[in-house]
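User: structure tokens for this one?
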Amino acid sequence: MQQIATAQPMKPAKPLSAPGNRRNRQAIHLKMSQLANAAHGAEHCEAVKRSPSQCSAAVGLTLRDLEDRRWCVSPPVAKERLRGAGLPYEGRRAGLIYSWASIFRAEGIDEKIAKSATQAEFPDLFDDLVDTSSAASLLGYKDPSSIRKLIGAGDIPQTAYIQFGSRGIYRFRQTPLMALRKASPMGRIV
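Assistant:
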């Protein structure tokens, strides 16, 4: 007995924007990493060896990481800084990833250095910034207002800090501050 093949009706293809389609985050991070590596000459991010979070770290930082971890500022203050540098701000839920070059540009780093900086050459640029009280303790002062006085007097170079907003929210780079550390007044008792 012969079987007769019945034609199954074809289902229409789901549009890419349909709610059932999920994003392949690993593929997105890999593609972004490849684009960033091509633009900045950094190491190639291999998806087999690294997780998506490590790939995004090679590319730059998400807006959430930039606000909470690197700058430690509120979203409105970060928004003002990013918009002032000509960068988009779509809110934390948008999942924007800012490249290191754009982060450095927003922080006021020289454009040539911002575009070509690698972690091997400028490791201190990639470190998270510290707040005023941490900077004060790093320099050996107990009161954070001492740091503001040093900035006002011009004793701290502009490359060592970033000012956010008009009220003077400061964040500091640790390496330049270490060079300014004052000597301890305590002597040795023999």
